Amino acid sequence: MKIIDPHLHLFALELGHYHWLKAENPPFWPDKQCINKSFNETDLLLEEPLSLAGFVHIEAGFDNEKSWRELEVLEEICDKAFHTIANIDLTTSSNDILAVLNKLVERPSFVGIRHLLDEQALPLLKNKQVLKNINLLNNKGLIFEVQLSLTDQEAINALCDVVASNTNIKFIINHAGFPPLNVHANEWKHWQNNLTTLSSYPHIAIKCSGWEMTDRDYQASWLNKNLSLIFTTFGSARVMLASNFPLCLFSHKSYQAYWQSIISSSFFQALNEQEKSALCYDNALNWYSMNEILK
């Protein structure tokens, strides 16, 4: 089975900054040292019948001031087919944004940007300068990676306004919108309702990964329930399975072990072959415009 992994991070610690990986900086995870080292594409090992056809590298804090540097390094050292999502600071002036974008579009791997929203989602999505800069992306037809909790109702309302006003951007939700651990809680129902709301916009897709960010020891039953609901809500053409490597190593011994847990899940086994291919390969191929490099 061919896989395009649409959400992973490679680290080149000897070349980049990666301030967030340093012990003295947040996030203060007790196990952060497990991933505080360099990872390259040779660490993305899969065993037959699985094979990694390509991947999408999501910015990892290499150099937030000159985000094109991360892309330059990756394009120099990677052999597999890949595209990149670059960091950008949407709070800066439009002239600064355009200057950064002009640098980024010179890189053949570049397809979109990410400004981490997370707990700052609401003020960011209400910020006039941020909204103006998102509109610049709309004019360029790029991808905007959306990382926030779908339980944040006010932020989701603001996001819907942004999505409705920027129909030329492909918005891709990161980490399944962080489903809460307790599926019987009101919070999980809020996540479910907002999942349904966002699915009504045809230019939104969702990536399913980052489960370890909710609970390092998450259960298969929780994973299956979330995946089934996401698949039912978004359909077979707008859901992508991903790894969040190397952070998936918080919960699994290896890259292979993570993907094995996904394909052996009861959710995945219940899919037909066309649906399996869509979630593991075809949707990432289409949403991240990888057709040309995977001919």
The CATH superfamily title: Metal-dependent hydrolases
- Find the CATH topology: TIM Barrel
The number of distinct β-strands equals 8
* Helical content band: 25-40%
Number of domains: 1
Overall SS class: alpha/beta
With helices defined by DSSP (H or I, 4 residues minimum), what is the helix count? 10
Q: Terminal Cα separation, in Å?
A: 17 Å
- Helices and strands, in order, run as EEHEHEHHEHEHEHEHHH
- Rg result: 18 Å
The dominant shape is globular
3D architecture notes:
Strand 2, helix 1 (68-77) and strand 3 form a beta-alpha-beta unit. This protein has an 8-stranded parallel β-sheet with strand order 1-2-3-4-5-6-7-8. The chain has helices at residues 68-77, 94-104, 121-126, 128-140, 153-165, 186-199, 220-234, 255-263, 266-269, 273-287; strands at residues 2-8, 51-58, 81-87, 110-114, 143-146, 170-173, 204-208, 239-241. It contains 10 helices and 8 strands. The longest helix has 15 residues, at 220-234. Helix 6 (186-199) runs parallel beside helix 7 (220-234). Helix content is 37%, strand content 15%. The model has no long low-confidence stretch (mean pLDDT 97). It is an alpha/beta fold. It has a single domain, classed as Alpha-Beta Barrel (TIM Barrel). It is globular.
